[in-house]
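In response to reviewer comment 3 from the previous cycle, which asked for concrete evidence that the modeling workflow produces usable outputs, we include below a single protein chain processed end to end. The sequence was submitted unchanged, and the resulting structure tokens are shown without manual editing.
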Amino acid sequence: MYLGATIMTLRIFVIACSVFALLQGSPALAQQYDPCPDVPAPAGSTGAPPSLETLEEEAQAGSVGSAITLGYRYAGEEDYAKAEKWFRYALYKGDGRGALGLYSLSEEGQVKLEDPEAIKKYGLNLIEQDARSGNGGSAITMAMMYLYGQGLEKDYDQAHDWLVIAEESGKPRASYELGVLYSNGLFQAVSPRKALHYFKKAAAAGIGPATRQVAIAYHTGIGTVKDLNQAIACYERSANQGEVLAMRDLGNIYRMEKPNSGLSNSWYRKAADLGDPDAQYELGGSQWLEKAMQQKHHLARIKADPSYVPPEEAEPHE
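The workflow returned the following structure tokens.
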């Protein structure tokens, strides 16, 4: 479970030979990773997040990460008393993310803190100390806050530097996020080749979204040689790791590029069962269109009611 809500400050300079080699376009980029590693989803995985009951059991057994997840999950469900409980538990265990969770509740007027800014500063200091002592998870936390400007001003150079530290500590999520930086041109210029390098590393560790990005590279020929069969293999690996978008991608391929209605509907059905509105729309039928319309999918509503006129500039599924 990946969280996107924690923070840190401090400029650091990273001198890492591997990164220098990448930036110089050296043969380090030629390091090979299985583009579609056979890393299945955990037993019983459906692509859905763990239940609150499972998270509570893990948190009660001492998992601070599960406590943080519970805090944000309960906040999302507007059960602020439980959110506060788990954030305080995490803070008691010395995790700065708990302090930041409490600060976010305070900012929303859901929790009264005597000195919210002091709580925030304390949380930042805890995360900084952990990150500087080699905690890869805390380094990722800092990177994401710089990346998305949550609690810090956006700074893609800082995000990159912290991600490099996290990757060197063995965090595959960091490899994935580095791929995102290079694919979107958020750090230096767009570099599909470097992005693919990092996506392959993350995919080799079983990160489903990274495997999908590798599939997209082979599908489009951006950053590598175009190869539809290799793309399909990677999409399938990603889908088997629970990546819903990869399931829909396969539905699209088997509908339009390698027509096979059986396979197309099978993949659309898997994505639709997991709540993907575009897959629900593609399946059609009153049941699926109704589900898509519940997610404000305007094309689904048009299909069900041709007289419907969507709002101006509306996205199909907004």
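Residues 1-31, 41-46 have pLDDT under 50 and may be disordered. We consider this sufficient to address the reviewer's concern, and the full set will be provided in the supplementary archive.
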